[in-house]
Each structure stands twice: as structure tokens, then as C-alpha cells.
Amino acid sequence: MKSLYYILFFGIFNSVYFLVICQNVPSPRREQSSTLVGTRLYFFGGTISSTITVNEVWYLDLSSSFNISTPPWHSDVAMPVGDIFGTSCLSPIDNSTVFLIGGRMRIVNTRNFSYTSSVYRFDSKNSLWTTPTINNFNSSFQARNEMQAVIDNDGKIFVFGGINTGNDDNITTTAYNDMSILDITTMIWSTQTQSQFVLVNVDYTATLLPSGLIVYVGGRGSSTASLNNISQIQIFDTKSYTWSTKSASGSTIASRVSHSAVLTQNGNIIIYGGSTINTTKIGYVFSDIAVLNTNSWAWSVPNVSGTGAPPLTEHSAEIYKNYMILAFGN
Ligand SMILES: *[C@@H]1O[C@H](CO)[C@@H](O)[C@H](O)[C@H]1NC(C)=O
Ligand SMILES: *[C@@H]1O[C@H](CO)[C@@H](O)[C@H](O)[C@H]1NC(C)=O
Ligand SMILES: *[C@@H]1O[C@H](CO)[C@@H](O)[C@H](O)[C@H]1NC(C)=O
Ligand SMILES: *[C@@H]1O[C@H](CO)[C@@H](O)[C@H](O)[C@H]1NC(C)=O
Ligand SMILES: *[C@@H]1O[C@H](CO)[C@@H](O)[C@H](O)[C@H]1NC(C)=O
Ligand SMILES: *[C@@H]1O[C@H](CO)[C@@H](O)[C@H](O)[C@H]1NC(C)=O
Ligand SMILES: *[C@@H]1O[C@H](CO)[C@@H](O)[C@H](O)[C@H]1NC(C)=O
Ligand SMILES: *[C@@H]1O[C@H](CO)[C@@H](O)[C@H](O)[C@H]1NC(C)=O
Asked: Is residue 291, in this structure, part of any structural domain at all?
């Protein structure tokens, strides 16, 4: 075991306590997306009740230390659409523009699906949202959700699989194993359908390694299928556009969906929480930490001290310095 297990940890939970002490705090939510921009940890959208999808943008200011009972919340300009189960990533070209991609995008203050765009652009310096023009957009991506995007150093966004979810919208429910690629330097969209065998995957985590490999952990096959085996790890090489699978060794980790993952400096992927599926609903919700070593492809369970976070699924996690910051969730 390496020394990385001195992980300091704190959760920002759905506490009513915060509402009592201060009004300028976000209400409890789940299914939001998050992106770290410098010292600001942004959260986009989310569900605040079974029927309300918000277009709120909040950030935590991490520029100085704080008491976790009073996290330094700030609200930012709201998004043009409400969004849940979407994904967001930061432009490496300017380190300040965030792209919000997919999810169940809804017309603000309605339950109606928004068909305006599947991608929105947020200029975090000027608090400005715009709708980019995308060349060759593939309309089959419309209403795609429950997936996680990564962006490489050249500005290529890779979004694997996901599902087009119907609910009260007129969209057919289909789960995918395609790779959607948006090059933010040209705004050209392309879809790579698989010539190799690749499992359909929904509600997984995606982690880009410095080597250019994207590591997909956990997830499920489709709305009715069972969980994908968390020890069978699908890997996409962003240099050669090829897939491979690693059978992870080490500890037995329960397969799951809607967990979170972060990458440490020394190449370990730390996952937290998530859940099993009971028919179509959330089953057992996890509160464990597991570590995947991406050199040996072995899972391990670290010894963690301090007060743990509660069971969480559909939450966010980002890594800032030595802190894995968990926020919101179900
Ligand atoms: C953090 O805030 C709580 C509640 O106000 C307080 O009880 C606690 O002492 C504070 N902790 C530190 C380290 O200041
Ligand atoms: C963006 O951030 C990365 C990582 O911190 C850094 O290597 C890069 O130089 C930054 N680029 C710009 C344009 O600031
Ligand atoms: C939302 O959908 C309903 C039912 O189709 C429609 O009557 C209503 O006008 C829509 N509202 C907006 C703001 O599009
Ligand atoms: C149904 O979906 C299509 C896009 O696939 C959209 O253009 C249309 O407005 C939707 N209709 C309703 C009633 O929501
Ligand atoms: C659009 O995406 C669908 C679903 O992955 C795929 O079957 C189709 O080939 C794509 N179209 C283009 C033009 O890439
Ligand atoms: C999951 O994959 C691991 C690693 O290959 C294997 O040992 C295990 O039996 C698999 N679990 C199931 C339920 O198939
Ligand atoms: C699945 O959900 C049903 C209905 O809510 C419940 O009765 C059952 O105990 C659940 N099973 C598991 C394994 O959680
Ligand atoms: C965790 O602690 C137990 C008992 O102190 C020890 O046996 C085990 O090896 C430790 N595990 C790790 C991963 O350090």
C-alpha cells in the first residue's frame, strides 16, 4: 500500500442546518454536474425535488481554507436551461470556459424538454452563457444523459455511451456504446461507432489518464440490464481510437452506478459511493472508498480515518490539492 491514503475528506451535505444559518446557500440537490475552474468548484443544475430541475449555477470558493459547517458558497448566473444527468468539462485552451454537454435539458421553470442545443458554453470569467454553433452535430445525441465527458489537452471532448431517456418527453429510450467527440477548437462533432466489442455503458465514471487513456469504471448496460462488472474495465485510447479491457485484480469491489471518481497525482483512481439498481430504482447506496491503481490495475480498499461521508449516489466529486470533495447527491 502506498502512502496516498492520507486522504483528507469532507462532504458538503444536504443539511437543513445550512439553510438555518444562511440564506446564500444552495438547497439540497442531486444529479448536478460539476467542474473545477482554478479555485472555484462549480455545480450546474440538479434536481431539488422529484419534479423540479434547476438551472442554478453555484460555486465553492476554495482559494482559502474554511470551516466545512459554513462552506463559502456563491451563486453565479443561471444556465439557459435546467439540466440533470448532464456532464461538464473545462477548456484546456483558456482554463476558464466550461462546456455543459447533454443531460435532461429542460425549458426553465417547465417540465418540457429543451431541443435548442445539447451543448452550452459558460465563460466563467464574465459569467456569460452562450449557445455554440456545432458543425456536423449528430441528432441521435439529443437528450443523451447519464454519461461523463472528459477533455484532452488539445480540446477534444470525448463522451461515451449514455442513454436517451424518455420519461415525460417524446424521446425513445436507447442506451449506447458510441463515442461522441467534440473538438472545441473547430466545434466539429463526430461519432465513432464501435468496430470492436464494447459494452453499452450508462452511469459509469470516466477518468482521463495523462497517457491519453480514458478509464471507464462501473455503470450499467441499459435500463433493465444488470450492472457492468466493476472489475472488467473498459479503456479507450484517445491517441489510437482503440478499445481494450483490463481485468482488475486485488480487492473485490461491488459493482455500481452513479458513483464518483477522481484521479490522484500518482495515477490512482479513487471512487466513492454509488448504488445498485433495484428493478429501475436505486437499490443499496454505498459509502465506501475504493482505489484503482492504474499501473497494476488492482483494486484496494484504504484505511480511512475521521468521520466518513454518508452513503451517497448521484453526487459530485472533484479533486483539489489533496482533497476529494464530495457534494450533494441522493
Ligand atoms: C466550525 O463551525 C462550527 C459551527 O459554527 C463550530 O462549532 C466549530 O467549532 C468550527 N470549527 C472550527 C475549526 O473553527
Ligand atoms: C491551463 O492549466 C494547465 C494545468 O494547470 C496548465 O498546464 C496550462 O498551462 C494552463 N493553460 C492556460 C492557457 O492557462
Ligand atoms: C410545455 O408542454 C405542454 C404540453 O405539450 C404545452 O402545452 C406547453 O405550452 C409547453 N410549455 C412551454 C413553455 O413550451
Ligand atoms: C419531439 O422531439 C423532437 C426532436 O426529436 C422535437 O423537435 C419536438 O419538438 C418534440 N415534440 C414535443 C411535443 O416535445
Ligand atoms: C450518429 O450516431 C448514431 C448513434 O451512435 C450512429 O449510429 C450514426 O452512425 C451517427 N451518424 C454519424 C453521421 O456519425
Ligand atoms: C468480474 O470480473 C472479475 C475480474 O475478471 C472476475 O473475477 C469476477 O468473477 C467477475 N464477476 C462476475 C460477477 O462476473
Ligand atoms: C427492491 O425494492 C422493493 C420495492 O421497493 C423492496 O421491497 C425490496 O426489498 C428491494 N430489494 C432490495 C434487494 O433492495
Ligand atoms: C488497514 O488496517 C488493518 C488493521 O489495522 C491492516 O491489517 C490492513 O493491512 C490495513 N490496510 C491497508 C490497505 O493499509
From this structure: yes
